[in-house]
What we know:
The chain is α/β, with parallel strands linked by helices. The protein has helices spanning 39-51, 99-115, 145-150; strands spanning 2-15, 18-23, 26-32, 55-56, 62-64, 72-77, 119-122, 130-144. 36% of the residues are buried.
Amino acid sequence: MKAVVQRVKSARVSVNGETKGEIDQGLLVFLGVGKDDSPQDADYLATKISGLRIFSEPSGKFDLSVGDVNGRVLVVSQFTLYGDCRKGRRPSFSDAAPPELAQKLYDYFIERILQQGLSVESGTFQAMMEVHLINDGPVTILLDSQRGLQDP
């Protein structure tokens, strides 16, 4: 499971002009599910993301999590995180999970974030979405559960 995590001042996602999820200060999480992912991958990323200390304390040092600043989380599904561009010019998405598995783990990930005590909004799975954000910093973190689960 892969995630692009962006610290934002605000973000919203809409489908056909209708807002589906919107947050003020917090984290925008683009989440991609791989074909070999399991609930363990979602558990790892949910715990990692909810505890990431990427918000500044008064001296400017990154020392606060999204919960510490009463921020919220907006989760947007993005299978294109599994796009493999090593050959040719058209990405291959063969490592992305099939839709039924991806949606199950996407929903499970959101539940795990909620269990961390955070407020969560989300986009619409498998829809063509427009994402609007005001990046804060910018601060952007890339996470991969497969790499994280291998670390001691």
